[in-house]
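Hey, quick one: can you model this chain's 3D structure?
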Amino acid sequence: MASMLGLLEEREASARERVEVLREEAARAAAALEAGEIELDRRVIAREELVEALAASAGESTAAMEARGDLVPAPVLEGASASVPGAIVPPWREGLSVSVLSLDSQRILNVLQDGPGREPMRAKDIAAALGVEVTVAAKVEGVRSKAKRLAERGWLLQEASGAFSAGRRLVAGPVGGSSA
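Sure thing. Here's the predicted structure for all 180 residues.
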């Protein structure tokens, strides 16, 4: 009986040591998680500040050009190749100008706002209206990706069928997360 009791005590001691090691690992992971959350919050705030500053700057530039009587150039792109790599689409909110969007995104919005009857359009139809080669699936997918991002951020509406239409809706801001 004594040997059985000794064996159980050894197993208990081993389990206690393992629990202690796991507690230390959990404490380290919790500290790393907290540091990561702080860094993420700082980066989200920095991005939001930059978007606001760029929107204000673009608005001031446009107003200055219009005041001088200069023509504000219309966005003209060649297919889907003129997009800005890594362009951020900020969530739509009241008063935010479309000038904060990349030229490709602005063109997609224009196609849907100026389209015949303002009916929902599929990505292939949007691509055709933009002059993108619809026979190249990758180019149509690029347009679809941009339109989906615009819909996720509230600049467009996406129908259950996958078609997109003009319209805006407020999107809840991130709670400790990024919307880029």
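One thing worth noting: The chain has two domains: 1-73, 75-180.
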